[in-house]
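Batch manifest, entry 17 of 40.
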Amino acid sequence: MSGKPTEQPGAGQHEDTIHNERTVRREDTTSTAHASEQRLAPGAVLDHGRYRLLAKVGSDSRCNAQLWRAKDGVLGRDVSLTIIVGDSTDTTQTSDARRTLERAMHASTFNHVGVARVLDVVSSAPGDPDGVLGIVIAEWTHGSDLTELISDGPLAPGTAARLLQPLAAAVEAAHHAGLVLGIDHPQRVRVTGDGEIRMAFPGPMPDAGSGEDVRGLGAVLYLLLTGRWALSGSPEGVSSAPAGPDGTVVSPRTLRPAIPLELSTVAVRALGSPESNGTTGGVRTGAAVLRVLEQYAQQDAGEAVMHSAPAGVEARGDDVWQREDPKPDPGRRRKLIYGVGAVAVVTLFVVSWLAAMLIGMFVGPEKTSGPNQIVGGETNSDSQQQPSSSSEESSAPPPKPLAVTGSDVFVTEQDRDNRDEVDLLHDGDEGTSWQTDGYNDQLGTGFKSGIGIVLTLENPSQLTEVDVTSPSSGTELEIRAASDDSPELSSAKVIGEGELSDGTTTIPVKTDESTSHVLVWITELSQDDRYSSEIEEIELRGSNGQA
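Output type: structure tokens
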């Protein structure tokens, strides 16, 4: 045995070894991946026929994952599928797939506006196409992917900073929870119709660490600012970031001098911050990226969105995305001047007309008789009937509070939101409340059609109004008469509806029948950073026919 000590590989050698191993794995699985790709086509069904493939959104060649939009046949909603393909007889591939599925399952408890919620994780099932090793099922994110977003060119710095904020916040929150998101691929990330970038296809690489998430943030920011992808696995149609003489990517500011220095610097430093890299000055946390994004999102808010679209601006849906730095528009300025002049002329005419009307009122002929003198008999008749009507109204009993003996959360799909707190809605204390879960999509557009509260009355009563005390303005709800505490929604008749304002909102009810159960059915949630509504008290008013 030789006495020569064994050499330990340095950090660089270790990284090269890992890179070579990954390259060999990809080469060994190329034929299997292509074969599976041919069998996975729109119309194919997975997981015992539950998920029907609708459209392929992208692919992540680094881990042989295909990204699909699919229809959940059980719940009737669109979902995103991250389908891991490979050779089921290869222990290395199956082990990597199992590790990815396990990590995705751990993330199923993580809720954040910047990440699509993991709904389920399944292994391959009988009847699935050959080569499917596992599937990560998540909420479907409406909108477009990053490659579509930058297809017409990079975004303005302020817009890029604003869009990326939710994703950076999600990375920081996930790392505090001990999770890795795996955002280091552009087709796994999408931008919503509300203009927020979101991790849409969860399922991190089996050996990915938190450093890959930070590098992913840097790469996404680089892509938005330059239209180039700075990591491996660049999808078709997206150019790779150019590298300098030392092999590192050039700064975004080199490609677009109008980019602020701080944004350019944080993108490059985040790209150089994997955990195994000892480079000084690297950005290692999502919080560091988020601080810079917040600064420029606020500073450049005026250039980002929501104004008329001159040259250099593209409309997407109801939003306007500023792609170039704003420049003065002489034509718009002239139009503004003409518009202000026209408004001034119209205002002068209206003021003159009002003045003439006022003068005519004071100097015109006096009226010799009022309406009561002209139609005295009829007026007297009306005046005689008025006290009778008023008397009838005063004799009608005013609505009184109705006693509620029980309550429960009512949904038609998924879990019941905060069911253990529902009794706080009728405890007489406005300091306590019940709240829905937070959702990334509005009711009716995501995986829930509505959320309700069933209230059980002490006695069958005829309802006349419902008082709802809530801080969640904009919440829309229906009042329905229910037959029992577990009604069918289709058979619960709508007897009132309204939109809540901050405070107590009275919703009138129109019904001639008594009911023993009332369903308060929320059809639209209030929106802050997510969709959610809070209700402090619900008071039912009416008559129960008892003395």
